[in-house]
Amino acid sequence: MGMFITLEGPEGSGKTTVAKKVVKELKQEGYKVLYTREPGGVAIAEKIRDIILDVNNTNLDARCEALLYAASRRQHLVEKVIPALEKDYIVICDRFIDSSLAYQGYARDIGIEEVYDINMFAINNCWPDITILLDIDPEIGLKRIKNNRQDEVNRLDLENINFHNKVHQGYQLIKEKYANRFTLIDGNKSEDEVFNDVMKIIKNKLDEH
Ligand code: TMP
Asked: What three-state secondary structure class fits 96?
């Protein structure tokens, strides 16, 4: 069995940048590595992603949104993550259940526990071996988003600063509530330092395996 690693953090925390560097490094060292992201990653889940992030879906109900994320998660897990783990891959997944807890559970006010419950159904006990939370000051995160603005602007990007601050608070709450599941990394540090910290955590876990 491989190793399932999830990366979590608010917008602008640098998850994707560090993930790509880590994947490159692990591959160079000879590991079998799969990088993937949520929502999406396989055709059905990408279709669900399109519905969720479509800027025209202004009337998407918050609970419906949470269910769609959970549905997309399930399909991605079964079709992509689990088969790779069975082939001994290290799977690095950009966002997983904790994004739903922070964004839908807390920032959208559905309730962390409620969103946890529907996600328990979706993941059916397939928990990550490590969840790395990139902890970052909300102002630094938002500045990074503005500076690195890509061409894709999705429905969640259109949310105002209060929403992004709530996402940040949501992560603070869940990191305390589920402290034993998280490994925290200071995302305010430089890109190289964050990379080194993440590599250290993964290497330690690989040594335990
Ligand atoms: P991305 O920008 O990391 O690709 O993610 C798309 C957006 O979806 C991002 O704003 C975070 C949000 N999101 C949720 O609200 N809930 C979730 O469960 C996931 C996986 C992502």
From this structure: coil
Residue closest by Cα to atom 9 of ligand 1: 156
pLDDT tens digit string along 84-124?
999 999 999 999 999 999 999 999 999 999 999 999 999 99
Atom of ligand 1 nearest to the CA of 103: 15
CATH code where residue 153 lies = 3.40.50.300
Place of tokens 């993937």: 36
Domain count, the chain: 1
Nearest CA to ligand 1 atom 7: 156
Those residues whose C-beta lies under 8 Å from the C-beta of residue 50, and which sit 6 or more positions away, are none
Domain that holds residue 67: 3-208
Low-confidence ranges of the chain (pLDDT < 50): none
Whether residue 83 has a cis bond before it, omega within 30° of 0: no
